[in-house]
């Protein structure tokens, strides 16, 4: 299967199972990471989740789409931030309220949020614990799309299927270029980008892509 679809149903009431849930997610992500047949991952969840799961997801080489069914709060938003694309339902709320309880976001929130929406907006959200509605989240780039509740899953699946038609090597390298480049100078990032570009030159997928374009047909990428 070129796409993997995960649904996280655990909520705050499942806090007593937190360690088991973390272990299960880590095992699933390890299997996905080593499966060259998997090109795209979709994770559906809602609200506050009972344990930190962001780092397991962030380590995947495949693109990950978050399908946010309702609010994304605290650890739930931190999980969403660890994904590459976020699709949410209309009328949802988003926030990192940990500051209200004398804590701070500690599952990547203080690092990933400013990289996504900018330092000023991130500081306001983190230091006040203020919640954002869907409209504002969409406007500042916290989420990519906002859809009606009954369109969430079809939208996420459709996007995953579209991405899965691309070369898995190109998807992985493009993701690596974006994330790794954020920690480099522009000059270093451009060098890394070109290195990854030339690595793709030696792949069959590149040949297939060019051949399919010339023959005016859809390419059949194999990930080699």
Task: Summarize the topology.
Layout: E1 3-7, H1 18-33, E2 40-47, H2 54-58, E3 64-73, H3 75-82, E4 85-89, E5 93-95, H4 109-117, H5 119-128, E6 132-133, H6 134-139, E7 145-147, H7 152-164, H8 168-181, H9 186-201, H10 204-214
Helix pairs in contact: 3-4, 4-5, 8-9
CATH level 1 name of the largest domain: Alpha Beta
- Mean pLDDT metric: 93
- Bin the helical content: 40-55%
N-to-C SSE string, H for helix and E for strand? EHEHEHEEHHEHEHHHH
What characterizes the major β-sheet?
Answer: 7 strands, mixed
Please report the distance between the alpha carbons of the first and last residues. Answer: 17 Å
How would you describe this structure to a colleague?
This protein has 224 residues and is of the alpha/beta class. It folds into two domains: 3-164, 2-enoyl-CoA Hydratase, Chain A, domain 1; 168-214, Lyase 2-enoyl-coa Hydratase, Chain  A, domain 2 (Orthogonal Bundle), CATH 1.10.12. It has ten helices and seven strands. It has helices at residues 18-33, 54-58, 75-82, 109-117, 119-128, 134-139, 152-164, 168-181, 186-201, 204-214, and strands spanning 3-7, 40-47, 64-73, 85-89, 93-95, 132-133, 145-147. Strands 1, 2, 3, 4, 5, 6 and 7 form a seven-stranded mixed β-sheet that branches. Strand 1, helix 1 (18-33) and strand 2 (40-47) form a beta-alpha-beta unit. Helix 3 crosses helix 4 and helix 8 (168-181) packs antiparallel against helix 9. The longest helix is centred in the first third of the chain and has 16 residues, at 18-33.
């Amino acid at each position: 299967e070129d796409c993997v679809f995960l649904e996280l149903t655990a909520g705050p009431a499942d806090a007593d199972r937190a360690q088991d849930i973390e272990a299960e997610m880590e095992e699933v992500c390890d299997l996905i990471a080593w499966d060259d047949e998997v090109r795209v991952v979709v994770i559906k969840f809602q609200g506050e989740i009972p344990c930190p799961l962001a780092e397991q997801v962030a380590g995947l080489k495949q693109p990950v789409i978050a399908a946010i069914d309702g609010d994304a709060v605290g650890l739930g938003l931190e999980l969403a931030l660890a994904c590459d694309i976020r699709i949410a339902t209309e009328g949802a709320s988003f926030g990192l309220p940990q500051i209200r309880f004398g804590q701070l976001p500690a599952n990547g929130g203080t690092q990933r949020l400013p990289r996504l929406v900018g330092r000023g907006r991130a500081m306001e959200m983190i230091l006040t614990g203020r919640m954002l509605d869907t409209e504002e989240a969409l406007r500042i780039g916290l989420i990519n799309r906002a859809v009606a509740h009954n369109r969430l899953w079809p939208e996420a699946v459709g996007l995953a299927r579209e991405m899965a038609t691309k070369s898995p090597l190109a998807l992985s390298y493009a993701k690596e270029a974006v994330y790794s480049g954020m920690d480099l100078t522009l000059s270093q990032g451009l060098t890394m980008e070109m290195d990854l570009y030339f690595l793709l030159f030696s792949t069959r997928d590149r040949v297939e892509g060019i051949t399919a374009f010339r023959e005016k047909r859809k390419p059949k990428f194999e990930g080699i």
